[in-house]
């Protein structure tokens, strides 16, 4: 079985909230249509897969002999775009979040 890489897109979310770079997270349901990303047990995001047009390439930056080098790490065919999930209150009623 070949590995499959997915790019995670948080651009829409980061316009509304600040996520610390060291915040713990859990990514679940990658094999479903709408994976869930939970950050710091406080922020719940719902994802949706978007097919790329063509192939996206992921690179890593390395320095060899003090010369920057880019190396292709993976080819991506899907983008996992996240949005804020509605909050559930104590009584189970779904609330909408206004930012």
From TrEMBL:
Entries under InterPro entries matching the protein: GTF3C6-like, TFIIIC_triple_barrel
Domain of life: Eukaryota
Residue span(s) of domain Transcription factor TFIIIC triple barrel: 2-85
GO cellular component term of the entry, any: transcription factor TFIIIC complex
Swiss-Prot/TrEMBL GO biological process terms: transcription by RNA polymerase III
Pfam families in UniProt: TFIIIC_sub6 (PF10419)
Database matches in PANTHER family: GENERAL TRANSCRIPTION FACTOR 3C POLYPEPTIDE 6 (PTHR21860:SF2), TRANSCRIPTION INITIATION FACTOR IIIC TFIIIC , POLYPEPTIDE 6-RELATED (PTHR21860)
Name under which the protein is recorded: Predicted protein
Organism annotation: Arabidopsis lyrata subsp. lyrata
């Amino acid at each position: 079985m070949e590995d499959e890489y997915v790019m995670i897109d948080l651009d829409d979310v980061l316009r509304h909230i600040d996520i610390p770079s060291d915040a713990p997270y859990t990514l679940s349901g990658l094999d479903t249509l709408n994976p869930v990303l939970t950050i710091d047990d406080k922020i719940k995001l719902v994802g949706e897969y978007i097919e790329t047009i063509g192939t996206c390439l992921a690179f890593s930056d390395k320095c060899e002999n003090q010369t920057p080098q880019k190396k292709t790490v993976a080819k991506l065919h899907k983008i996992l775009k996240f949005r804020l999930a509605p909050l559930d209150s104590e009584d189970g009623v779904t609330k909408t979040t206004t930012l």
